[in-house]
UniProtKB/TrEMBL annotation:
CDD domains according to UniProt: ENDO3c (cd00056)
Reaction catalysis annotation: 2'-deoxyribonucleotide-(2'-deoxyribose 5'-phosphate)-2'-deoxyribonucleotide-DNA = a 3'-end 2'-deoxyribonucleotide-(2,3-dehydro-2,3-deoxyribose 5'-phosphate)-DNA + a 5'-end 5'-phospho-2'-deoxyribonucleoside-DNA + H(+)
Main function: DNA repair enzyme that has both DNA N-glycosylase activity and AP-lyase activity. The DNA N-glycosylase activity releases various damaged pyrimidines from DNA by cleaving the N-glycosidic bond, leaving an AP (apurinic/apyrimidinic) site. The AP-lyase activity cleaves the phosphodiester bond 3' to the AP site by a beta-elimination, leaving a 3'-terminal unsaturated sugar and a product with a terminal 5'-phosphate.
Protein name, per record: Endonuclease III
Record organism: Serpentinimonas maccroryi
Gene symbol of the encoding locus: nth
Amino acid sequence: MEPVHIEPFFAALAAANPEPETELEYKSDFELLCAVLLSAQATDVSVNRATRTLFAAASTPAQMLALGLEGVQAHIQSIGLYRSKARHLLQTCQLLIERHGGQVPRSRAALEALPGVGRKTANVVLNVAFGEPTLAVDTHVFRLANRSGLAPGRTPLEVEHGLLARIPPAYLRHAHNWLILHGRYVCRARAPLCGQCHVVAWCDSAPPNAAASAPPRP
Ligand code: SF4
């Protein structure tokens, strides 16, 4: 993608969805951290189904610890890898209390020191909870960045660095959610909906004539 096309690419995503939001359900920074931790290799829908009952039973690190391993597992057993996720969740709660007064830290190093919290989870929490211009590269963002030519790369980290270098600063705050939602619902893994794509005019992989049937530019 030509550098000159990146601004209109994001302007179109912004016009179509000015305030994009994560589809994970949460009421606090702690619940967001838990939901993102649980979402690895799971859909947001399945995580929300589990956390509705989990957060009703425990919405603080102390309450989560009081539930115990079997108690947490009982709420999240429909999610893949639930045994290790439950263990990591409780270890994380213990460290939040010991190191951070029960609060979610606003620091990449502190977040990545928590069990089960990797770079992607830290990026989501820093962006969604604290408004930091970080960019989590999940499967949808990775696919869209490569397919469109926005920031091609062989690894999520390569794509993340490419995106951070190429996205105009004014769009960085919401870029994470715009790209995830666009990748999830429009630039799908199988059968991307190029005919309904707001950024078809700037995409390297747009099929011939797709722009003709695409929605008008916002
Ligand atoms: S034009 Fe097609 S391939 Fe390009 S971003 Fe849109 S949906 Fe994806």
